[in-house]
Design brief:
single chain, 434 residues, alpha+beta, Aminopeptidase, Nonspecific Lipid-transfer Protein, Chain A, 3 domains, 28% helix, binds coenzyme A
Length: 434
């Protein structure tokens, strides 16, 4: 079994919970009864429906690879069902410069309503961060249901996303006309080609993570919502040589008989080439019987509006934080990405959980490679580990954070130097929830 599933539970958090007569433990995911109770507790924590036996079976198979942690209360009416849940797994996160760093993905954080506000979530989060640190993973990541919970653990929003609404009758196509071929295919037909494409495009935006097999199959509606699956369509774009270069998963939502202004809901679009991007969007925009296209979780620098005759046909309906990043090892994280311009800056980092406190010299050469060392030199910039996480993928600037009073510039010009270095040509983006 891989190390991430066998590292023992964090001693410090276990001791803290024990004082409240609670047990922190790992779930044996091959034990369907134990894992099933954990899954039911997790669904309850998110106020979701109880999974049917089939759904539960699918969830148990799809999540067995994760490190699965629970908290149990022996005094509860049903002591076998955990009162708190969390799951985690190692992944790779794309960083500026077409490379990746190892990241610790955290999900399924719930505490039973009967046990809230006693510090259980704090014990779980801290234990996850210490476990990732033990495994020498330099960064932890999560997507959040509320933006008020995770800053206290050193996380910050690092990649944003936007929802779009496109009024298609006014959105005449003015972009490049792609020369490839579109094919309507079944989700099953796209399973392997699409997985390969998703892997290929992962490097195109900082913030993308490896897509777990279960999430991939959900995107294709092969598992999960059976109702949604009924009118889900998949279109694949092949280049002139017949090689798949992109696909879109969408459905046209039936808004009543005789309605020629239906809504096309784009679920997922992947394009490995600019041609595929243009070909797929033109196809979606020009769909007959459709009055508008909606799309969620799209990148904030989507070029689509520039490809239409009416720039205002595309409205961003919801631009917000999506991927949250927590740096656990400044040297490995900062040396893992590339930089847009050279610079030499001393960063003073404060970390309430003491993983990364210190003064670091970041020395970036003309090729964009950074070397990080601890230093006694005076700081050019002071910031907390949260701001470092926010800046890491190039999703926000030091100038913005300085104006917001979140970082202090000790040496004039240091903010401008580092902003030029941290800049990413592509806005960071994560294309899915986890
Ligand atoms: C959010 C949740 C996990 C918190 O669990 P908890 O055990 O009550 O949290 P704790 O007692 O450990 O609280 C830790 C800190 O978070 C704060 N906090 C807890 N829930 C919060 C919330 N929903 N919003 C903002 N802050 C919250 C607490 O005030 C406390 O702050 P402090 O450290 O400054 O004292 C729990 O309420 C829950 O399961 N909610 C439903 C599922 C959910 O939203 N999960 C998060 C998925 S991203």
């Amino acid at each position: 079994m891989s190390a991430h599933r066998t590292v023992p539970v964090d001693h410090k958090s276990a001791q803290r919970l024990l004082k409240q007569h609670l047990r922190l433990g790992l779930v044996d995911t091959s034990n369907t009864e134990e894992f099933g109770l954990w899954m039911v507790a997790m669904a309850r924590g998110f106020h979701e429906q109880r999974p049917s036996p089939d759904e539960l079976d699918e969830q148990l198979r799809g999540n067995a690879h994760r490190r699965t942690t629970g908290v149990w209360d022996a005094a509860a009416a049903d002591p076998a069902t955990p009162v708190a849940t969390v799951s985690s797994w190692p992944t790779d996160m794309t960083v500026p410069g077409d490379s990746t760093v190892a990241a610790w993905a955290i999900s399924a954080v719930t505490v039973s309503p009967t046990h809230r506000r006693r510090g259980i979530a704090r014990a779980l989060l801290e234990s996850e961060l210490r476990t990732a640190h033990t495994l020498a993973i330099p960064v932890a990541v999560l997507t959040v249901s509320e933006a008020t919970i995770y800053s206290r653990y050193g996380f910050a929003p690092a990649a944003m996303s936007a929802d779009l609404r496109i009024a298609t009758p006014r959105a005449k196509w003015a972009g490049p006309v792609a020369s490839g071929q579109l094919h309507l295919v079944s989700p099953e037909q796209l399973l392997d080609d699409g997985r390969e494409l998703v892997k290929r495009v992962q490097l195109r935006a900082p913030g993308q993570l490896q897509l777990e097999e279960r999430l991939w199959q959900r995107i294709l509606c092969l598992i999960g919502d059976r109702e949604r699956a009924k009118n889900t369509r998949v279109v694949r774009y092949d280049d002139g040589g017949g090689r798949p270069q992109g696909f879109a998963v969408y459905r046209v939502v039936d808004t009543g008989p005789g309605n020629s202004q239906q809504v096309l809901d784009l679920h997922y679009l992947v394009a490995a080439t600019d041609d595929a991007y243009a070909g797929l969007w033109q196809y979606l925009i020009e769909m007959d019987l459709v009055g508008s296209v909606t799309a969620s979780l799209r990148p904030v620098d989507e070029p689509l509006a520039w490809m239409l005759s009416d720039f205002r046909a595309v409205v961003k309906t919801n631009e917000r934080d999506h991927l949250w990043v927590r740096i656990l090892d400044v040297k490995t994280a900062l040396e893992g990405r590339r930089y847009s311009s050279p610079g030499r800056v001393v960063l003073e980092v404060q970390d309430a959980l003491n993983f990364t406190d210190g003064r670091y010299l970041l020395d970036i050469d003309g090729e964009g490679h950074g070397v990080v060392s601890l230093t006694a030199e005076p700081a050019d910039i002071s910031l907390t580990v949260n701001e470092l996480g926010a800046l890491y993928l190039g999703g926000t600037t030091l100038a913005t954070l300085r104006q917001a009073g979140r970082i202090a510039e000790r040496t004039p010009g240091a903010v401008a130097t580092l902003d030029a270095s941290f800049r990413s040509a592509v806005a960071p983006w994560l294309s899915f929830w986890f």
